Amino acid sequence: MISFLLSIVVSIASFGAVSNNESVNNAEAINRAIEHCAEQGGGRVVVPCGEYYTGSIYLKSGVMLFLEQGAVLKGVQDIDAYASLKTTLDLSRYESGQGTVNYNSATDPQWSKAMVFAVGVSNAGIEGKGCIDGADVRNPLGEEHMRGPHTVLMAGCKRMKFEGFSVKRSANYAFLGYQIEKSQFHNLYIEGGWDGIHIRGAKCVEIAHCEMHTGDDAIAGGYWERMSISHNVLNSSCNGIRMIMPSIGLDITDNEIYGPGKFEHITSHRTRSEAAVNLEPGGWGKAPGRMDKIRILRNKVSYVLTPLCVTLSDDNTMGRLLVEDLEARGITRMALSVKSWGNAPTDCVVMRRCDMEFDGIDDPALPAWFENRPTDQWPVFPVWGMYFRNVKKVDVQDVKLSVKGKEYRKAWMVDNVKKHNLNVVDVR
């Protein structure tokens, strides 16, 4: 990363930025400061205490944008003040939601608008104790005819660092990244908006010690390689972690994930939390590939729909999934599940020292309802605790399942599982 002992420090105020004036768009002044710093070989561009309205700004290699305590970069309400992503990278493999109002394409000039851009940038980022306020800007031409610019959009970046500051009222995602390598997101506080940190294409990326209260998924994306999500507090009105494209080498460790959401899902207005961890390659369009080396360790989960939902599409396979020391309380409706509805296989699921408590459904007719009903009609699973389908081996040790209230379904079920020892599960 940047050595500030050998770099310059400049203030955006020195380039004409004016604070606390809603009629002034400071983008030009901020971009001049960043450009000057980059031309001098890199360094730190300081945003002093105060509120600075801005449209799109552009990070440069070797430059760290530093938000002093009390400093706020705030988005202007004029949607035309926000540029669209320009890159020569082929990002077509990351498209999702084709044919729906949630179609996401990096080539879409509305979807790819952003407040802060980093394109082909390395050894740069944002830090400090200030804030970036997306100002909840609406775009009638955007996704769902309402979503505005992302707060930070990166493409083809390496060795990026984002640390210490807060992001609030994002008009779409707080962070959207394409093809990001060797980068860190540390000690961030994110509230409101849609997704918190959403990365499509990651290699050696770490998200740690962040706190998020988001209307949509807290952390999302896919095609991750050696991705670490650890020591975060995640609160969402959708999913805590949602992976929509397959990954290899994913560690989800020491997180607290809970519901209901503090901020409502802006589209649906719900606050109910869905899955704590939802791994569903192909869930938003074709995403072929293999998943493997997935580790979910020492996580605490409460008041969500389900602690873990893994669903493979027909274009996917999965190697080994390890779940250890999972503590779940107040699971509101859905069993933990690892499955595919077609024939996509999972090699091995290993569970150790897991303790999960589910809320029962007081309906004595529920078990019979599932007889001869196709899976696409299931509102819940035929069991309340754990469900496995198309898995070669399920190996459990010291796993406890308990249910609150009345429940008439079985605790667990397997379908096309070649080998398992679920009979040793402690059911209460």
Automatic annotation (TrEMBL):
Short name of any one Pfam family annotated for the protein: Pect-lyase_RHGA_epim
Gene3D superfamilies: Single-stranded right-handed beta-helix, Pectin lyase-like (2.160.20.10)
GO terms for MF: hydrolase activity
Residue ranges of every copy of the Rhamnogalacturonase A/B/Epimerase-like pectate lyase domain listed in the record: 10-241
Cleavable signal peptide: none
Matching InterPro entries: GH28_Enzymes, Pectin_lyas_fold, Pectin_lyase_fold/virulence, RHGA/B-epi-like_pectate_lyase
Keywords from the named record: Hydrolase
Domain of life: Bacteria
SUPFAM superfamilies: Pectin lyase-like
Protein name in UniProt: Glycoside hydrolase
Organism of derivation: Leyella stercorea
Lineage of origin: Bacteria, Pseudomonadati, Bacteroidota, Bacteroidia, Bacteroidales
